[in-house]
Write a structure and sequence with these properties.
By secondary structure, the chain is mostly helical. The protein has a domain at 9-115. It has helices spanning 9-58, 64-152. The longest helix is centred in the C-terminal third of the chain and has 89 residues, at 64-152. The radius of gyration is 36 Å and the shape is rod-shaped.
């Protein structure tokens, strides 16, 4: 019997390669989300420290111009944090899109792999039957030859 050959093996290999590439891209998207979250966290910690510093400064005598400058800087920090949060949202949406692509690729790969497994089981069953048939023929031929030798002898 011929060696098992799956006709869609090249397609399966291609789909597995595509899936792996998509997994890598998804991993990069996850990393970008985490980096953005860390950046925002650091900015918020810096903002909170600056805010506490202003509260300490307010306890001393401070000119209104200087206080206005601090207030303006706080507004800039708030704006930057909001901008970074918008960027985080974009990155999260990209990560979600990439995850969906990975899921879809996995479905495609799995369906072809299941077909391959089914074909392999069918091949193995057929090969086992064929081998069993050959053994039976061999035994049958030996017993016929044995009877002839016994009858002739």
């Amino acid at each position: 019997m011929k060696k098992f050959a799956f006709t869609l093996e090249r397609v399966l290999d291609y789909k597995e390669q595509v899936e792996q590439n998509l997994r890598n891209e998804h991993g990069q998207a996850v990393r970008k989300v985490k980096e953005q979250e860390q950046k925002i966290g650091e900015m918020e910690v810096g903002f909170q420290a600056f805010r506490e510093q202003i509260e300490d400064v307010k306890k001393t005598e401070i000119s209104s111009a200087r206080l206005l400058g601090y207030s303006g800087y706080m507004s800039v920090l708030i704006s930057r944090i909001a901008s970074e949060k918008e960027e985080l949202l974009k990155r999260q949406m990209e990560e979600e899109r990439r995850r969906e692509l990975v899921i879809e690729a996995k479905k495609e790969t799995s369906s072809i792999q299941m077909l391959k497994d089914k074909k392999r089981r069918e091949y193995d069953a057929l090969a086992a039957k064929e081998q069993e048939k050959e053994v039976e023929e061999f035994v049958s031929n030996r017993s016929i030859a044995g009877r002839r030798d016994h009858d002739n002898g």
